[in-house]
Amino acid sequence: MPLSPEIIAAIVPVGAVAIITSTIGWVAVTWLKIRNGYPLENSWGKPLLPAASNETIERVKLLAQENAQLRAEMGSMKDRLQVLERIAVDKGSRLAAEIDSLGTPRLN
Question: What is the dihedral of CA 95, 99, 102, 106, to 10 degrees?
């Protein structure tokens, strides 16, 4: 069954638009990966390892330091939250006794 010229004339522009759109999308995704430092992959999904620059290594070091600082800060926040929870659910008389004991020196 041969295709009529009208059907071919209707299919060709749609196919051309699909090919152009997918090519532009591929270029845009690759550009965004490069720009944001994501690893590139070949057509089989295996990573293409670009040479690590000094800037990239320094950036990773800075991020690791920031991560360590944030983890330490989070730990201190958890400790503070535990104290505040203890204060909030504690009876007032015991809390007052603890506060008073902090203010007066013990004589032994």
Answer: -80
DSSP state letter for 104: S
Sequence spans of domains, the chain = 1-50, 52-108
What tokens were used for 64? Answer: 């690791």
pLDDT tens track for 8-54: 888 899 999 999 999 999 999 989 988 888 877 777 777 776 566 78
Dihedral of the alpha carbons of 48, 53, 59, 64, in degrees to the nearest 10: 70
Q: Is 26 helix (H, G, I), strand (E, B) or coil?
A: helix
Rounded Cα distance between 29 and 32, Å, is: 5
d(CA 25, CA 19): 10
